[in-house]
Amino acid sequence: MSSLFLHGKIKTTEAKAKELRSIAEKFITRAKDNRMSNERLLAKSLSLPIVKKLVEEIAPIYSTRPGGYTRITKIGPRKSDSANMVIIELVK
After folding, report:
1. How confident is the model over 32-91, as pLDDT tens digits?
2. Could you say which DSSP state residue 8 is in?
3. Angle between helices 14-32 and 36-45 (to 10 degrees)
4. 87 and 21 in contact (C-beta within 8 Å)?
5. Using an 8 Å Cβ cutoff, are 42 and 84 in contact?
6. Could you say which of 3.20.20.150, 3.40.50.300, 3.90.1030.10, 3.30.530.20 is the CATH number of the domain covering 2-90?
7. Where does the pLDDT of residue 92 fall: very low under 50, low under 70, confident under 90, or very high at 90 and above?
8. How far is Cα 41 from Cα 68, in angstroms, rounded to an integer?
């Protein structure tokens, strides 16, 4: 999740992306409500530089958006084990 917030998009398996989507959207919703208690809850799961970026840069972008902060795009199976690969990214 830190890589998603740091880089804006990551390449991963479909199963991991679906799990990551639900958690990341909850974190962004919590960061939109800019209170110290929310920052402390986020800091339990993320490093402080990531929390700072989430609260100061990412959350203000989505201040008027009610949800749907991420997008999953399928890119086909991985050659080694045929796992379905996707790109999960933050919607701008």
Report:
1. 998 999 999 999 999 999 999 999 999 999 999 999 999 999 999 999 999 999 999 999
2. S
3. 160
4. no
5. no
6. 3.90.1030.10
7. confident
8. 21
**What is the C-alpha to C-alpha distance for residues 50 and 30, in angstroms, rounded to an integer?**
14
Report which of 34, 71, 79 is spatially closest to residue 56, judged by C-alpha positions.
34
Structure-token match 């999953």, residue found: 72
Question: 74, exposed or middle or buried, with CB in 10 Å at 0-12, 13-18, 19+?
Answer: exposed
Q: Which residues of 9-30 are buried (b: 16+ CB within 10 A; e: fewer)?
A: ebebebeebeebbeebeebbbb
Nearest partner of 83 among 9, 14, 10, 1, judged by Cα: 14
Assessment of whether the complete model's pTM goes beyond 0.85: yes
